[in-house]
Amino acid sequence: MHPSLLLTLALTAAAAPALAGPPWISIEFPANPYNASTRDAFCVVHVYHHGDAAYYPVQGTAEGLVNGERRSVPLTLTDAGMPGVYAVRYRPETTGSWMLVFRVGAEGEYGSATALVVLGPDGRIISTTVPTSRRGKYLMPERVTAEAIDRLLHERAG
User: Fold this and answer.
1) Bridge partners of 81?
2) What does each of the 158 residues of the chain score in pLDDT, given as a tens digit?
3) How many CA atoms lie within 13 A of 33 on its CB side?
4) pTM for the full model?
């Protein structure tokens, strides 16, 4: 085998463990009105891998319960021109119980992270959480199911 190929394989194998571990997600509210890419955004989503901003695909939905009827509305996230930063365009509903759900990463070996953003009756953010559990010395994002979201919406509407 050619020596440069061996070196490339060795470096690739050595770099692989650095990619291990789940992504992280956080929510910024209010969005920075002085930045043209986040101006007028409802909120901003930040995505990380360990301590570094990372480009991971992010999906978001507004999940609601209005007069006992479940609703799900896809959200528009736009790249804010900074690594791992996405502006969320959303006009809140003022009837029913609503939350925003943002998911980053894929289910699998390194997992995903989900941010749950609870909205008040006026459409403003009242809390944000990323469900986690401790695994050894690590805080790991938990998988959030559709059933868990339904349960939370019903509890809030209660």
Assistant:
1) none
2) 554 444 444 433 333 334 578 899 999 999 999 999 999 999 999 999 988 999 888 999 999 999 999 999 999 999 999 999 999 999 998 899 999 999 998 765 568 999 999 999 999 999 999 999 998 998 899 999 999 999 999 998 87
3) 1
4) 0.84
Nearest to 53, CA basis, from 22, 20, 83: 83
The amino acid at 10: A
Which residues are 76's β-sheet partners?
89
Distances (CA, A) of 139 to 16, 51, 132, 145, 150: 21, 13, 6, 19, 25
Respond yes or no on whether the N-terminal peptide bond of residue 30 is cis (omega within 30° of 0). yes
What does residue 24 show for φ and ψ, rounded to 5 degrees? -130, 155
Q: In residues, how long is the chain?
A: 158
